[in-house]
């Protein structure tokens, strides 16, 4: 999984965007943990 920013306004706002790497990694790790727990319990949706 990767985070990708695109679009016509990106060049205008890119420099004002904060570094979201740690937030994205925290989200990805939480999602991974939940998916692994669901797979182990057989509770897949």
**Rg over alpha carbons:** 16 Å
Mean pLDDT: 90
Major beta sheet summary: none
Structural class assignment = mainly alpha
Note the overall shape.
elongated
Sequence of secondary-structure elements = HH
Helix content: 55-70%
Low-confidence region ranges: none
Task: Please give the alpha-carbon distance between the first and last residues.
Answer: 20 Å
Could you give the count of β-strands?
A: 0
Number of helices: 2
Beta-strand residue fraction: under 5%
Descriptive notes:
The chain is mainly α. It has helices spanning 10-13, 21-41. The model has no long low-confidence stretch (mean pLDDT 90).
Characteristic terms for this protein:
2 helices, elongated, mainly alpha, 45 residues
Task: Give a quick rundown of the structure.
The chain is mainly alpha-helical. It has helices at residues 10-13, 21-41.
Compile the SSE list and pairings.
Blueprint: H1 10-13, H2 21-41
């Amino acid at each position: 999984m990767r985070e990708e920013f695109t679009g016509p306004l990106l060049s205008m706002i890119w420099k004002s965007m904060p570094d979201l790497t740690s937030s994205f990694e925290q989200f990805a790790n939480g999602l991974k943990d939940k998916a692994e727990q669901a797979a182990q319990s057989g509770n897949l949706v």
